[in-house]
Write the structure tokens for this entry.
Amino acid sequence: MLALVTGASRGIGAACARRLAADGYTVLVHYHRAAGMAEALAAEIGGTAVQADLGDFSQIDRMTARIHEQLGRVDLLVNNAGIALNGLFQEVSDQDAMRLFLVNVGGVMHTAKRLLPDMLHAHRGCIVNIASVWGECGAACEVHYSAAKAAVIGFTKALAQEVGPSGIRVNCVSPGVIDTDMNAGHDADTMAALAGETPLGCIGQPADIADAVAFLASDRARFITGQILPVNGGFYL
Ligand code: NAP
């Protein structure tokens, strides 16, 4: 079984890659810039590192063509890669807003589009998209990010309906606040406040998301599609 995990050089993606490898997948460890980290992880788990800027569709085309021709049919796509964007809505530049949507929505949809033909041909496959609690409830000063993650949720539900009859499941994990580089810009007080607002009293770890992804990818979830699985410690109910 072959899995492609996007943004697997670090954070949630790296945890997913490790967990899926432990579950028996051969993992394609996708990265954008962190070649050294992706290659080290690929060596650790017996996978292969693959590179693309997911904000550039021609690079997605090149990467997926290489996978198709040299590495095999992808059984599981984990659309994890994403970028954050903080700032007041009206102060975010058009360029930054477009870039966010290109990577966080365009990259997710185009990668799935390019891998679906092989899944449709095999009449089997699984896609797990990583959204965000902000895509469910929205967040001030992260309006573009929230809107993009809401689009990922909408994409998950719509595609699940379209490809379900072809034996392909599409689900979404919606993380709350997770301890990764994406939150490295927050100071200790902010992180403590976020933990304090979480009923379970702490922020999450990348492995918490990887466990949910592994479940949705497994046969234990064979009758689950089009769903959004929140993994947020009760932060948003
Ligand atoms: P992270 O530690 O910042 O890692 C981001 C990953 O995405 C890296 O592997 C990075 O690759 C890749 N990436 C960034 N820009 C890319 C691009 N243009 N093309 C291809 N890959 C790109 O992030 P994370 O916290 O693990 O987040 C993973 C996912 O979970 C994201 O979709 C994020 O929105 C979502 N999420 C995170 C949290 C959280 O609290 N951390 C909460 C909710 C949702 P390189 O390292 O190679 O540059």
Q: What stands out?
A: The longest strand covers residues 168-175. The pocket of NAP is lined by residues 7, 9-13, 31-34, 53-55, 80-83, 103, 130, 132, 175, 177-178, 180-183 (CB under 6 Å).
